[in-house]
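Methods — Computational structure assignment.
A single polypeptide chain was analysed. Its primary sequence is given first, followed by the predicted tertiary structure written as C-alpha cells.
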Amino acid sequence: MSDHAHASEPEQDGRPAHGRADGPAYVWRGPFTNPEVNALHAQGFDHPVLDIDWHGQLHRHSLGWVCARVGDELVGFVNVAWDGGVHAFVLDTVVGEGWRRTGIGRGLVEAAVVGARAAGCEWLHVDFEAHLRAFYFDACGFRTTEAGLIAL
C-alpha cells in the first residue's frame, strides 16, 4: 500500500478486474510505464508527448487507476484521485486511437467504480466537457449535480 492508502484499498494482483478473454483486460492499479501513459495521454488530449512521471504522481496522490490492455498494449487508462476519505474523482479517462467507440471507456469507468467502492468511497465525481455528456451520463451512469468551478 502507498503512504496515502485507505485501510481497505484493493491492491492490484495481476488479475483483470473484469474483461472478456477476447477483449480488453481492465486492471485496478495495474502495471504501466510512464512512456506508454504519456503516449496514450498525448493521443487522447491532442498534445505533444510529454515526460510526466505518472508512476510517481499516481502512487503519491491517487486512490488508484485502471489500465485497459489488449495483450501487451495499453489501450485505455483512467486515474482515480481522492480526498483520503469517501470522495473519489475520475480524471484523465483516455482511450487510444483505433480503440475508441468500442466500450473501453465505459469499461475503464466501471472498473474505477468497483475499485473506489472496494476502497470504502461513497461518491465518485467527474467533470467533463459538454461533448462527453452522453458518455458519462448515458453510458457510465453518472447523474447531474450542482457544482462550481474556478479556472486558475
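Note: Strands lie at 18-19, 25-28, 62-70, 73-82, 87-95, 123-125.
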